[in-house]
Predict the structure.
Amino acid sequence: MKKPMDQLQVAVLAGGPGSEREVSMASARGVVNALEGHVGKVTLVDVNDADFALPGGTDIGFNVIHGTFGEDGDLQAEMKRRGIPLTGATEGESRLAFDKVKSKERFVEAGVCTPASCVVDLRNEGKNKVGLPCVVKPPREGSSVGVHLVHTEEEWRSAIEDAGTYSKDILVEQLIRGKELTVGIVGHDVLPIIHIQPKSGFYDIRNKYPWMTGEGGTDYFCPADLDPVVTEMVQNEAWKAHQALGISVYSRVDVLLGSDDNRPYVLEVNTIPGMTESSLLPKAAAEAGIDYCNLCLKIIKLSLNFA
């Protein structure tokens, strides 16, 4: 028999060894504050690798570890080994969504509109079949780490050198110019679209987290000012991408609305989106009438239903 929500012991798993550790800790503090008084007990657990201790009697882990050992399936595998449910995507869903090459293959199979791409293997001097301009991405990193917009051969060499420090197989995508959008999905609810407008450049780590980097910045508009037909088209494409990866609990889908053709191009699906009170998923949920506390509780309930 499942415990009532007000008796659940929740461990908020945060930190991780990756580049988004600070962001994860900020998310964790927000989730802990939101859940206190609404569950039996909530504890923040700082995680670096598989050797972490959970409080005795933990009923579920609330995962806010972005990137390595949080979003890549390793934490999911460890929690499964321990027999304790974890919020969000399963191990298989996480591994698929975290790998931009494999997830893109799944998008193409499912008919999801996504930028044309190729994989360049740096070990055998693979060729860029997309041509210039293009976007260079390490396939298994988050928060735009190692991502470069490339217009010239000089920029190409620099981008490959940097991205190659993260991975020897590099995803190269067609450069789509247009509005940067993101669509949150919780259960079967597709949330209002957010228009992301960096103050300069593109939505890289500098613009995502100016509080962490001390520079950059971004304006957010929710709901995005889009024609109703376009809004529906973007939300439908996001839902298709979410389903293509078999995700059942929640995600945030990043989309570019092409300025030339007004088509929504899915870039990736984030299975552990930021969860500070001002992060994008909570922002979209609030617009849909789901406050931050109830969003956290809903994620727990959905995760236990699918456990």
Observations:
- The chain has three domains: 5-87, 97-112+177-306, 117-174.
- The mean pLDDT is 93.
